[in-house]
Amino acid sequence: FKRLTQGLAKSSDKLTGGIAAIFTKRRLDDEAIEELEELLIASDLGVKTAAKLTGNLRKTRFGKDVSDEEVRTALAEDIAEILTPVAKPLEIDPANRPHVVLVVGVNGSGKTTTIGKLAQYHREQGLNVMLAAGDTFRAAAVEQLKIWGARTGCPVIARTEGADAAALAYDAVLEARENKADLLLIDTAGRLQNKTDLMQELAKIVRVMRKVDTTAPHACLLVLDSTVGQNAHSQVSVFREIVDVTGLVMTKLDGTAKGGVVVALADQTGLPVHAIGVGEKADDLRPFSATAFARSLMG
Ligand code: GDP
Predict the structure, then answer these.
(1) Which of 112, 113, 182, 285 has the most Cβ atoms closer than 10 angstroms to its Cβ?
(2) How far apart are CA 54 and CA 41, in angstroms?
(3) Which among 109, 111, 113 is the best mutation to test ligand 1's pocket, defined by most ligand atoms within 8 Å of the CB?
(4) pLDDT tens figures, 80-97
(5) Which ligand 1 atom sits nearest the alpha carbon of residue 115?
């Protein structure tokens, strides 16, 4: 909790500083509400969610004297309410051997790092985890995943650069099954510059792995870089057109003032948020807690 608070320090500083500036011995009038709404939008909570939050405050406190602390507490409660339905850990069904998780997202969003962190976490839980280097387009991505495999003690299935990603995914599911792996995490390429290619490649990966296991993938995680702020919404739309996204992981929440985007995404997509990344190391993945996040955001 403490580290989450530190991780969200920039988002929180912006919001709490802004709220303090608006509500210094002040009545909750139209002007104050408008200023608050602008602050929430500037903090990446999005227009709709900002309006919903200020609407709630208006209903309960309009015309009353309010302190900044009271406003923060009320907002934290409402934000926690928005986040609660989406705060769900990634569940690994032991009936699936392996439970196949396809990890998608644009390049640089933190896919490979998140896979490394998830591998570490689930290994510690006693699961037999395997990784597949499905971003066959970039040699560096394959190397990066191999480093995470070595670091976490998880075998990595990889092919040479330029190999067919779907063929690799097929082999990976087979190999993971033969090795009685509990969990197979598959990295993918995220070249959003060419949407048609990406769409075809991901569709083919899914189609081909289903020749081994008709129920795979059992989850499709979209990894989003929180620092892109409102841009995250368009990434969600694009990837949902391509694959059946089942949940989100938000990365780089350390050192960004854009943590509010998590609230906007929760409110507007309803997609589960499985975990958040608060650093580059193996243990810098946090389970997503609605109340802890809301409180950290509101200082
Ligand atoms: P990919 O291209 O989607 O696989 O992205 P990578 O996993 O290679 O990550 C891109 C960069 O972001 C790397 O330098 C990572 O170390 C860094 N990164 C990933 N997750 C986090 C995070 O939660 N916090 C911070 N500060 N950096 C992160």
Answers:
(1) 112
(2) 11
(3) 113
(4) 999 999 999 999 999 999
(5) 7
